[in-house]
Design brief:
The chain is α+β, with helices and mostly antiparallel strands. The chain folds into 2 domains: about 1-30; about 35-90, no CATH class. It has 1 helix and 7 strands; from the N terminus they run H-E-E-E-E-E-E-E. It has one helix spanning about 1-30, and strands spanning about 35-40, 50-55, 65, 75, 75-80, 85-90, 90. The chain has a 3-stranded antiparallel β-sheet. The chain has a two-stranded antiparallel sheet with strand order 3-4. A hairpin with an 8-residue loop joins strand 1 and strand 2 (about 50-55). The longest helix is centred in the first third of the chain and has 31 residues, at about 1-30. The mean pLDDT is about 80.
C-alpha cells in the first residue's frame, strides 16, 4: 500500500502540472493571434482602410469595434490594402 501511494501521488502531481502548462500555453497562443483592427472610411481621400489602436482576434464572439471622437462606433476589419479592408475581426478575450 505504501509503494502504491509513493507511485500514485507523484503521478497525480505530474498530471496536474502538465494540465496547467497546456492551459497557460493555450491562453498565450490566443493572445498572440491578436491583430490591429482597421476601420473603413469611404469618405477618406486616398487611404480608406485606417488603423486603430484596438487589438482584435480573427475569430470569436462579438465583432470588434472602435469609437471615434463623436462617440460613433465602427466595426473593425482586417487590413487588405489602403483602399480595401477585409473580413470582420472579433473581440479578443
Amino acid at each position: 500500500m505504501k509503494t502504491l501511494k509513493q507511485l500514485v501521488f507523484p503521478m497525480i502531481i505530474f498530471m496536474i502540472g502538465i494540465s496547467l502548462a497546456f492551459a497557460t500555453n493555450a491562453k498565450n497562443s490566443e493572445n498572440s493571434m491578436l491583430e490591429t483592427g482597421y476601420r473603413f472610411d469611404p469618405s477618406a481621400s486616398t487611404i480608406k482602410c485606417i488603423a486603430t489602436s484596438v487589438q482584435c482576434a480573427p475569430t470569436g464572439g462579438p465583432i470588434c469595434t472602435w469609437k471615434d471622437a463623436n462617440n460613433v462606433s465602427h466595426n473593425l476589419m482586417k487590413y487588405v490594402n489602403n483602399t480595401t479592408c477585409g473580413t470582420f475581426l472579433y473581440r479578443g478575450y
